[in-house]
Amino acid sequence: MKKILSAVVVCSALCLANTANAVDSTGGCGLGSMAWRGQSGIIPQSLAITTNNWFSNTIGVTLGTSGCDPNGRVSGGTGRMTLAFLQDNMEQFAMDAAAGKGETIETLAGILNVDSEKFGHEVQQQFAYIFPNDNVEAAEVTLKLMEIAEA
Hints:
Layout: H1 2-15, H2 17-22, H3 31-35, H4 42-54, H5 58-63, H6 78-99, H7 103-112, H8 116-125, H9 127-130, H10 138-150
């Protein structure tokens, strides 16, 4: 059984290598990109694409679920979860960001799959960049946090 599964994985990777290079690193939107989120490399990316092909993305795109946006933007995964969290916890996050630690820092570090201590330090150091004024929007903070997490 292991040999068959290994053969399927290798075959999928080889067959989909060109397709994988043509899409973003999340494998697009859909159940596959959600199931394999956070993993890198050709195998997880190919499996995400394969899963997306097995389970039609039409419903996800139409209803705006599974990380799909009806307007054609990939909006799911980490970015969407970060934005949703910040929309509900912006004030507490601002206080934790100023301190460089706290529950919101730990939660966001988990969502972004980064070390919470290092992330908290970076957020504290870049507080003025993240919060340039009192009326900053959660979407703007999300983009900045994604940038910090990738660095």
